Amino acid sequence: MQEKEKITRRKYLKYIGTIVGVAIVGSVGYYLFRSYGPGGARTKVPPEGTPEWKKWKREEIGRPDPDERQGTLHVYAWTGYDAPNVIGPFEKEYSPLKVDVAIMEDSAVTYNQFVGGQYKVYDVVSVDMDWVRAFAKANLIKPLDLDVWKPWTFDNYVDEFKNFRFSFVDTETWEFAKKWGEGTLYGFPMRIWYTGLGVNLEKIPIEEAMTYDICLQPDVRVGIAHRDFPNIWSLLLWARVDPWKEHTDDEIKKVRELAIQLAENAVAIYPSFAAMNMALASGEVDIIFGYDNLTGYALRRDGHYEIDTVVPKEGAVVGTETICLVNNPNLHPAADDIIRYYQSKEGAARLSFPAEGQPCPVPIKGVEEEWTEEQRKIIRMDFAREQMSRCTWFQGVPDMEKFSDIWREMKVRVGKKRKS
Predict the structure, then answer these.
(1) Can you name the residues that pair with 321 across neighbouring β-strands?
(2) Peptide bond into 96 cis (omega under 30)
(3) Alpha carbon 16 to chain centroid, angstroms
(4) Is residue 196 left, alpha or beta, with left meaning phi > 0 and alpha meaning psi from -120 to 50?
(5) Which of 337, 351, 363, 375 is deepest in the core (most CB within 10 A)?
(6) 46 DSSP 8-state letter
(7) How far apart are CA 59 and CA 10, in angstroms?
(8) 74 vs 128: CA distance, rounded Å
(9) Distance from CA of residue 286 to its chain's centroid?
């Protein structure tokens, strides 16, 4: 048996030198990949923040560079972002890149997961617009350069979103900027939702549904949605109280009085989206209080065109999902590319009607032109715009806990004064 070769100092140093050399070549290779221009020509990356860098970065976002085709890009978002008709075209363009979309259940849950360290897993996240401030303050999402991103985003929005200030955060107060372009840019509006009354328009003329007061009429069969927060928003607006501030005892009393009247006249509080839609489609109820347009589109997609979401004159709440870059130290180089894709007319049109998930409006110009006649019947954008014009932008109720007892009492008092 041969004796094992002894490792001399000279051989050890030669071995270490080889390893270091490979590491240097690998690092240079990565840099060269990131320095490729159109057609694969190598370019020098300008210093970050300079006008030359902004121009280079704008162009880089719009093309699949060699390193962007590698590995797996991780997105954390709601159902729909993962649909094959949405992700497939991007994966084909960036092949062999794979996109893995994890489905979130709630922005608050996602925030806690990220604070616990899971932000290192993901490259892109889509959260309820109100949560952008918290994610930004906790340094969980990246600040973005408006000059770089404007041609890919705001320049292509419908008029209602051209000056969408809720993408910008004042990093001194951690409140939304007062005006578009002020503060720091952290993300872009994606899918649009709004609350209101789910109405069977064959039974209730839209003129009668233009006030929440219809929910107190004894001859109207009213249901209540299962989620506390949209109900509280609607009750506050019904009581002519600003939802997005601290509330006085008198204001809470006004909300409670309306809440109890509503509950006592209601048929039921429905425990899920499916239960609400079944009650509306079957004729069990004429109206659902605390409904939203996305839930309604699911019914309309199934042929129930008599159902739609109406915003009464007292108002309702409109909001968006905001798509952001995660502050991952190992961010995938194609992360900004997939945001650009979701924000494009083609990507947004697919996301508005995912093969799996609910139809949903998006703020990108030209998307409606991509829809079929059937899809335009499901989402009536002229109708939706009219409803949203009476809405207030979602910003979060700062003292929501004060209304917890009201919601619990509503569940106990539901149907107490109904005769049938």
Answers:
(1) 128
(2) yes
(3) 49
(4) left
(5) 351
(6) P
(7) 49
(8) 19
(9) 29
Give Cβ neighbours of residue 295 (< 8 Å, ≥ 6 apart).
198, 273, 276, 277, 309, 358
Buried b / exposed e along 74-94 (16+ C-beta atoms within 10 A): bbbbbebbbbeebbeebbeeb
Give the integer Cα–Cα distance in Å for 361 and 368.
9
Which of the four pLDDT bands, split at 50, 70 and 90, describes residue 21? very low
399-402: long-range contacts at Cβ-Cβ below 8 A with a sequence spacing of 24 or more?
Answer: 399/246, 399/247, 400/229, 400/232, 402/247, 402/252
Which of 192, 185, 205 lies closest to 336, judged by CA?
Answer: 185
Amino acid letter, residue 187? G
Q: Tell me how far apart the alpha carbons of residues 253 and 233 are, in angstroms, rounded to a whole number.
A: 15
Interstrand relation of 287-292 and 222-224 (parallel, antiparallel or unpaired): parallel
Asked if 84 and 355 touch (Cβ cutoff 8 Å), the reply is: yes
16 burial type by CB count under 10 A (0-12 exposed, 13-18 middle, 19+ buried): exposed
CA distance 293 to 232: 17
Cα dihedral sign, 98-104-108-114: negative
Q: How many CB atoms lie within 10 A of CB 403?
A: 22
